[in-house]
Structures are given as C-alpha cells and as structure tokens.
C-alpha cells in the first residue's frame, strides 16, 4: 500500500485499563505475582523433565515444549503490561508493537499445535499401547515438535507483513493493554477487509482443525478407556490425559471467544481485555499446577528434586 502521502505514526498509546493509582498498584502486584509463579512453575517443569530419567518420555517432552511456550507467550505481553500499570504515558514504538503482535500469535498458534500433538500422543499411548514405543520414537517426537513450531511461525507471518504495510496515519490509540490484531485494525487506514478475512480463515484453520483433531482423539481415548474391565485400570488410563484435557478446555474456551469472529474490528474490546488477562496471565500459571497436581509421575519427580536439593544444602 502506498505510504507516500502519509506520515505513519512512530508510537502507539496502549489504552489499557482505567488509570486509578491505588487500583493500578494492587493490580500490578497481583499480575507480577502471577507472572513470577508462571515463570517459576513452567521453568520447574522444564528442569524436572530434563533432569529426571523417568520422565524421558514423549508425553513429557511435549509438556516441556508447552511449558517453554507458556513462558514466552506470557513474557511477550506481561512485562510491558506491568510497566504501563505504573506509568501515565503508556506508549510502545511502532515496530515494538508489530513484534509483540507477531510473537504473541506465533507462540499462541504453536501452543495449539503442541496441544494437538499431545492429544495424538495420548491416543497412541492408550489405544495402541503395544505399538506406542515403536511409533513415538525420539526422532518422531522431534519432527512433530518442529512441525508445530514451524507451523506457528509461518501461519501468522503473511498477515503481519500485510499489517505492516497498512497506513497508520490517524489515531495511534490502541484500545488494549497489548498490541492485539483487532484494536490495531480498528485504527488502521486503508481497506482492512482482506486482512480480517485472512485472519478469520487462519483462525478457523488453526483453532477449529486442531480442536477437531483433539476431540476425535479423545473420542477414541474415552471409548478405549470404557472398554477396560477394571475400574482401577480406567482410572489410571484417564489420569494420564486428564491434565491435558483440562488445559485444552481452558485454552480453547478463552480463544474461541476472542478470535473466532468474522470481524476483528467489531469485537467488544472491553470483554476481550478481560478474556485476554485470563489467557495471558492466569492460564500460564494454572498449567504447571494442573500437570503437577494430577500427575503422579511429575509429583514424584518434583519430590525427588526437592529431596536432592535439601541433601545438597544439608551437606554444605
């Protein structure tokens, strides 16, 4: 698009939340605490998966990928959000905004693909246990993880290039606490209908297809579990996928509300902000707790790690 007759804005103002000092400071403390818990919890999962030989399995390899994604997904948004809660002038440079927009969607889309791969892994483990070890080799796991990361990288790249070419010449006020696609298109000049249509199609392709594959996997998983004769066997089989199913339900519920709409610019930004806080701040904190509380192998590995640290400190 021709920008010769347009002086493009150099900075955006993130409108964020109503600036009331006492409330902002309290909100800052809560978000900071949640962010630190998210980094610590997801980082701890990565450490115990890497250091515990009993967790050298495909399920935990993908779980460590998910935790790594969660760390960066929340980091693309929360540090700037925390800074803006304490500042009156909440600005972000143009290219910083575009970078935040890209990486937010890159990590988010990759997370969908990783969760889909995890559901396929659980399907093989429960429905084809005898062939599981021969199918899900380390090479196959690496290829699936790489495919998920590359899928996330390229699925959003073309849309960001199109947004970069838009003439942002008028308002520079983004009605959000980070650079999200809907508020940016709302203030962009030129015709944004093609970009909105492409974003909607990508959202359908990524969210609906990954959700459909996950649902199909769990239909087979549940039907297989119900055929197990003993109740203890059913409980053990279901416990291996209950954590993943919980995370999938939370994530898809939030994202379907925000992004799966034909027009991004006509969304209710007030509601989107609330859902975005849940998606970018609260959910990354919940995931480590969900996987540790409901997974005996992770709890045992965590307990052994704490025991080793306690022995090390006692011997010093």
Furnish the topology, listing elements before pairings.
Layout lengths: L10 E4 L6 H31 L6 H18 L2 H8 L5 E3 H34 L1 H7 L2 H18 L1 H8 L8 E2 L6 H7 L5 H34 L4 H29 L9 H25 L2 H20 L1
Parallel strand pairs: 1-3
Antiparallel strand pairs: 1-2
Shape type: globular
N- to C-terminal separation? 65 Å
Mean pLDDT: 83
What is the N-to-C order of secondary-structure elements (H for helix, E for strand)? EHHHEHHHHEHHHHH
Backbone CA Rg: 22 Å
GO molecular function, one term: G protein-coupled receptor activity
Keywords: Cell membrane, G-protein coupled receptor, Membrane, Olfaction, Receptor, Sensory transduction, Transducer, Transmembrane, Transmembrane helix
Membrane topology: Multi-pass membrane protein
Protein name: Olfactory receptor
Task: Describe the protein's architecture and organization.
With 316 residues, the chain is mainly α. The protein is 76% helix and 3% strand. A 3-stranded mixed beta sheet has the order 2-1-3.
Characterize this entry briefly.
The protein has 316 residues and is mostly helical. It has twelve helices and three strands.
Short descriptors:
316 residues, mainly alpha, three-stranded mixed beta sheet, membrane, transmembrane helix, G protein-coupled receptor activity, olfaction
């Amino acid at each position: 698009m021709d920008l010769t007759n347009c002086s493009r804005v150099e900075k955006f103002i993130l409108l964020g939340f109503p600036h009331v000092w006492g409330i902002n400071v309290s909100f800052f403390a809560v978000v900071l605490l949640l962010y630190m818990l998210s980094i610590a919890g997801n980082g701890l999962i990565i450490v115990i998966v890497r250091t515990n030989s009993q967790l050298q399995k495909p399920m935990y390899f993908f779980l460590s990928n998910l935790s790594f994604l969660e760390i960066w997904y929340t980091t693309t948004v929360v540090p700037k959000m925390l800074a803006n809660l304490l500042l009156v002038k909440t600005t972000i440079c143009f290219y910083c905004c575009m970078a935040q927009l890209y990486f937010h969607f890159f990590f988010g889309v990759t997370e969908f693909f990783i969760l889909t791969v995890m559901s396929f892994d659980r399907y093989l483990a429960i429905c084809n246990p005898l062939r599981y070890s021969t199918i899900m080799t380390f090479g196959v796991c690496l290829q699936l993880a790489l495919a998920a990361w590359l899928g996330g990288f390229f699925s959003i790249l073309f849309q960001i290039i199109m947004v970069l070419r838009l003439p942002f010449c008028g308002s520079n006020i983004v009605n959000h606490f980070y650079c999200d696609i809907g508020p940016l298109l709302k203030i962009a000049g030129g015709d944004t209908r093609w970009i909105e249509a492409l974003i909607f199609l990508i959202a359908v392709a990524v969210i609906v297809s990954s959700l459909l594959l996950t649902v199909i996997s769990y239909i087979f998983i549940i039907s297989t579990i119900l055929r197990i004769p003993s109740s203890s066997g059913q409980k053990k089989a279901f416990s291996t996928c209950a954590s993943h199913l919980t995370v999938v339900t939370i994530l898809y519920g939030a994202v379907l509300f925000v992004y799966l709409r034909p027009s991004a610019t006509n969304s209710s930004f007030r509601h989107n902000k609330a859902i975005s806080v849940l998606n970018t701040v609260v959910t990354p904190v919940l995931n480590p707790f969900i996987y540790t509380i409901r997974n005996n192998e992770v709890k045992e590995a965590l307990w052994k790690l704490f025991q080793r640290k306690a022995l090390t400190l006692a011997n010093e």
